[in-house]
Amino acid sequence: MAPSFVNFVIFKKQICFFLFMLSQVSSGHEDDMHTVQYTKDTFLDEIKEKNNFVMFYAPWCGHCQRLGPTWAQLAEMYNEGDSNIKIAKVDCTVESTLCSEHDVTGYPTLKFFKVGESKGIKFRGTRDLPSLTSFINEQLGSIPTVEDEVPSPPEPVNGLSELTEESFNAHVEKGHHFVKFYAPWCGHCQKLAPTWEELANSLRNDDSVSISKVDCTLYRSVCEQFEIKGYPTLLWIEDGKKVDKYTGQRTHEDLKAYVSAMLEKSAEQSTNKDEISDSTLHTVLSLTGDSFEHSVEKGVSFVKFFAPWCGHCKHLAPTWEELGKKFFANENVHIAKVDCTLNTSKQLCYEQEVDGFPTLYLYRNGRKVSEYNGSRNLDDLYGFVMNHLRSHDEL
């Protein structure tokens, strides 16, 4: 073999080795501070002790490198404190046997391991932060815990909440509620049903009141608690207590007028006591994928995309409410929030390119015009909105 060809082969191998080593460095794994790295020796012990979400990867893999920063952020969220889950990774170029055992045939492969189970559940969704966190919440939600014994308030469908014996008291214990007690076989109830759904849908963006229903044939104890004698019975409930029974006409217009009158009456009573509660004076709109487009289509909207478990979001929450109060009387400004962990908001957060929490976007007439990255104190947030209002007025 000619010497020049041999030298070329050696040179080519050296270049390949150099590029491989460079990829090891540039793959970034800045997340070593937070992400746990597993080996074959530690893997089984770890998944016996806690829930795990594991990324099986190769350092040279481009998709793995792109996922790296998001995975690091996920690890920072969950691997601190008393979390019941670990965010981890396995380098398949080093732990090839371990990766083969878990049927890893491409990179990255993401699997969720419930505590004590050796077989993982493969993640097949979009690799963005809202999708990953939503997947984690779904998996954790299917694991029995002490917290599961306390039911969460029901998630409304087009503004209408269906209550049960387990969820009723927690749902109505605070705020204003208009509740329909009914029986499926009741003719008057069947006639009212589409109007009740229309009422709920028309008020779904108003967090000062919830529209709900209870099937008395299924949840008799709730109906006995409120002494329901006939169907349908429509009660106005405030902070868990019956305030009024609706006996008027059952058209959409009449029902909506009744809601407005009861809210106004409640606000007047609170004003007389010199204290307006958050449930009476609602200053921040809670939006979902269904209501977002309509809510931001006019004027200036400043929207906080958040997750309930996010520490920075919790810290910002009271300031965001204060910001809402500052613009409460301004019809051209809407201060709003979107919970990206809800199924009704997951796609919206993905479409709006939310890749961290909280993310603050400003919209004008339905179009995103700016992201806020400044200090999160009240004065700076207020000034940011005012600057956009002034700049628009000067056009």
TrEMBL record:
Span of the signal peptide: 1-27
Keyword Signal: yes
Keywords, alphabetical: Redox-active center, Repeat, Signal
Thioredoxin domain location: 1-128, 129-264, 270-390
GO MF annotations, alphabetized: protein disulfide isomerase activity
Gene Ontology BP annotations: protein folding
GO cellular component: endoplasmic reticulum
Family classification: Belongs to the protein disulfide isomerase family.
PANTHER family: PROTEIN DISULFIDE-ISOMERASE C17H9.14C-RELATED (PTHR45672), THIOREDOXIN DOMAIN-CONTAINING PROTEIN 5 (PTHR45672:SF3)
Protein name: Thioredoxin domain-containing protein
Species the sequence originates in: Odynerus spinipes
Taxonomic lineage of the native organism: Eukaryota, Metazoa, Ecdysozoa, Arthropoda, Hexapoda
